[in-house]
Amino acid sequence: MTAPLDVQPSALQADPDAATSAESAKAVEGRSLRQIAWMRLKRDKVALGGGVVIVLLILTAIFAPWIVKLLGHPPNDFHEDLLDPTLLTPKGKLGGINASYLLGVEPVNGRDVFSRIIYGARISLLTAFLATVLSVSFGTVLGITAGFFGGWVDGLISRVMDILLAFPLLVFAISIGTVIQTANGSVFGLSGTSLSVATLIFIIGFFNWPYIGRIVRGQTLSLREKEFVDAARSLGASNGHIIFKQLLPNLAAPVLVYSTLIIPTNILFEAALSFLGVGVRRPTASWGSMLSDAVATYSIDPIFMIVPGVALLVTVMAFNLLGDGLRDALDPRAGR
Questions:
Q1: CATH assignment of 61-329, given 1.10.150.20, 3.30.420.40, 1.10.3720.10, 3.30.1340.30?
Q2: What pLDDT is stored for residue 185 in this prediction?
Q3: Global pTM?
Q4: Which phi and psi angles does 335 have, rounded to 5°?
């Protein structure tokens, strides 16, 4: 008769604490950098709150026509019957706020403030996002080129950066905006509001790329001396492979963080130009132009200045909070 097998319990079975420790170590080792960053970001409730606000703003901008159709009135329609015929100010308190006009109506012309705020979000976010994409694309390509190749290539691109950084952007934007505002024809098939928005996107995006370009150049100068780049060279990797497969993925974190921080700057720049009357062409709704229109009536009723001002404040703060959270989450020196 065969003797029963003498089965010995394994070390992990004998020591439950060791098994738990091994499983925890395995779980930590199995996390990717993306998972670790997401885990850190989830712990930052303030940054998540900013992200939620940004998502809501984007959805508001996308579905603006349906929201206005459901809760408001066309943004450029006049409602003189809601104004005092003598003072041309809204009837009632707080700018004429009621169930039909959730944020009241503007003085003089009686346009729905709620509808114009909703459409103003579309203009601000569209301009800021596209200008950021343009500047980040230029800055990343030229910054990584300058940092990787060095020599005369680095010298040439760096001098171009210095020139653009010293360029009086605000004065130039005001000059070009004034020309566009007074132009009656079309440029490249664009006219009116489309032309003014495209001009803003180009001016903001093109003249802001040196900032991200310097960041990418500095990071590239450091990364190109790392061991993984030397290993790729020893295996016969081409410059294109090293740039796009080795360096660019390591630059994704600083580029992403910078993008979330430059978007609110672009929103404020667009609002400033619209406030000065050289941004988005009227009567298209813009938060900056709404602030400009409210200057003449803020002493009578400040609600017309408070509403677009709060919209700008909340939007800029949301992007800044999310950017700070992403910076902390993507920092490799931070604890897990």
A1: 1.10.3720.10
A2: 57
A3: 0.82
A4: -70, 155
